[in-house]
Every structure is written in C-alpha cells, then in structure tokens.
Amino acid sequence: xxxxxxxxxxxxxxxxxDTEVLEDFYKSPIDPDTLIKMxxxxxxxxxxxxxxxxxxxxxxxxxFGKAVAEETVKNxxxxxxxxxxxxxxxxxxxxxxxxxxxxxxxxYGASGIVLGPGIGxxxxxxxxxxxxxxxVPVDYVNNAILAAAWETxxxxxxxxxxxxxxxxxxxxxxxxxWGEFF
Length: 182
Hints:
Blueprint lengths: L1 E4 L26 H10 L2 H12 L5 H16 L5 E6 L1 E3 L18 H9 L13 E2 L1 E3 H20 L6 E5 L7 E2 H4 L1
Parallel strand pairs: 1-2, 2-6, 3-5
Antiparallel strand pairs: 4-7
C-alpha cells in the first residue's frame, strides 16, 4: 500500500468555515502540473509576489500545498493501492516509544509552543481559552498509518480499488481547548 500523509487542515480554507470537511478528495485549488511548471519557470521574486493570489482562501502555503499534493497523488497513483491519512496537530507521544517522546523536527507546531517558553525563546502566546484544538499524539498517528496501509492492502485485494481517506483527530471524542493545553 501507498500511504500519503497529508493534514486534517488541507481544506481548512475560509470558504469552508463552519462546514463539514468529509473524508473525500476535493478539487485542487490549482492544477498540480500548472503549479509545477510555474515553480520551474517563474523566478522566486515573482512567485513570492503572486503567492497571495495563488493560495486565495487557504491560510498558508502549507495547507495549500497539502491540498495540491492530494490531487497529485490521486492522479499519479491511479491503479495503485492508495490511501491518504490526514492527521490533525501532531504532538508528543502518549506511550510509544516512550511517553513524551518528540522528534525534534516537530517543534514548529503545538509542541514547540510548549517547548519555546521552557527554553526561554517564547514569552507570550495569544489564544482564546475556549477554542478547541485538534491534538493527536504521534504514536496514535503512526499506528493509524500502519492500520490504514494494512486495511488498504486488504480492501484492494478484495477488489475495492477506490482510494480511501482517513482523518486522525481527537477533537470530537476527546476535545482539548487552548485553555486546557496551557
């Protein structure tokens, strides 16, 4: 199986606020081949100047890029045993390999918000205490990826070839608010 790891925020764009984002493929904000050609032929200064008009409703290039990548994978992997896993905000491990384990490449998200003040790099953080945040431990995400790969292989072997999307979040069963996180 091929498991493409995306993000639960790949379609967190302002035109979908207060709507349910389903576990389905959505239309890419731009044709992936067009975007690739642009990045290969347009100079960096020009790309930087047109980025706001390219990403339109997306909050940043990260979620925009993940949306385009999902379309790319869907198109390029036709006929392969494919699934997409969309984790929310990945934080330190709950159990495996040990409680609190954190890959240092993951200090730019919610874990970094906790780590920053601890090492004196961050002195304040503005957030509404009542807003829910979708935190999910890295070991839960890893286990979901393995389970998705297994289920995809089993499903495709049974003749069900349509790619499936899995969201990995804790927001509805175990909601956390910013006020509880700090």
